Amino acid sequence: MKIREATGIIGVLLGIMLVMAGVGFTKTSLVSETFAAAAPGNKTNATNTSSPQAVLQKGATPPASNSSLSNDVKTTTTNNNITLGNPFYIQYDKITSQVPVPLRSGGTATGVIFSGTGTVKGISFADTGRALIIPISKTIVDIDGGLVLKTNVGGGKDNGNATLSFREISHMIAAGTMQGSGAAIFNPNATGKLSFLSNTVAMTTIYDAGNKDGTTIIKGWEWKYR
User: Fold this and answer.
1) At the N or C end, where does the chain have fewer CB atoms within 10 A?
2) What is the DSSP letter of 61?
């Protein structure tokens, strides 16, 4: 039984990594599509930006479902209790601009640019990133993207930086409140004080309570292979 559970967990993680390989900061076809389609006249400024729940409330159109795929999927449910402990990564972000993006599969997504600050293992950083918010249903969105982290510890010239790709599924759990989970993979090019992040895999949560200041909170727990 333990072998089956371990195999299942490894399979899920490998599946996430394979999917994430296609949603990187520079390699994502969907994210690239977002900003290729973002003509200057189409962008909105920070005062008109949307949170994920706003995208749902505006009635963005989900892509057409693929019934042949759903017929091939088999669901296996296991009851595993995992204690996460304290997150090693906390990030506070705000959307600064957005643009509607027609999807090749049909429907409309929203491309966003965001920035913020956070800490990772006690080290402060500033971040900038971009993401594509894709409606799956009236209450669920798929968020794919990437970001760059830069430290500001001590004011040195080479404090370090890191890049990551992420994917999250977020649900509207109450009016104006979104909550979800996902995964983030740090690329192997981290430098300086953030060099320890190279090739790190994190399980994440995202929470957006529709705060007046538009802050979204992301927390991450390191997924260790040993």
Assistant:
1) C
2) P
Burial class (CB in 10 A: 0-12, 13-18, 19+), 77: exposed
- Which residues make Cβ contacts (< 8 Å) with residue 185, sequence separation at least 6? 17, 20, 164, 165, 166, 199, 200, 201, 202
Q: pLDDT tens digits for 137-176?
A: 989 999 999 999 999 766 656 689 999 999 999 998 877 7
Domain residue ranges in the chain: 2-63+85-222
Q: Write the pLDDT tens digit of every residue in 83-141.
A: 667 899 999 999 999 999 999 988 899 999 999 999 999 999 999 999 999 999 989 99
Tokens representing 78 are 């296991």
Which architecture does CATH list for 2-63+85-222? Answer: Beta Barrel (2.40)
Give the Cα separation of 197 and 201 in Å (integer): 9
Three-state secondary structure along 43-59?
A: CECHHHCCCHHHHHHCC
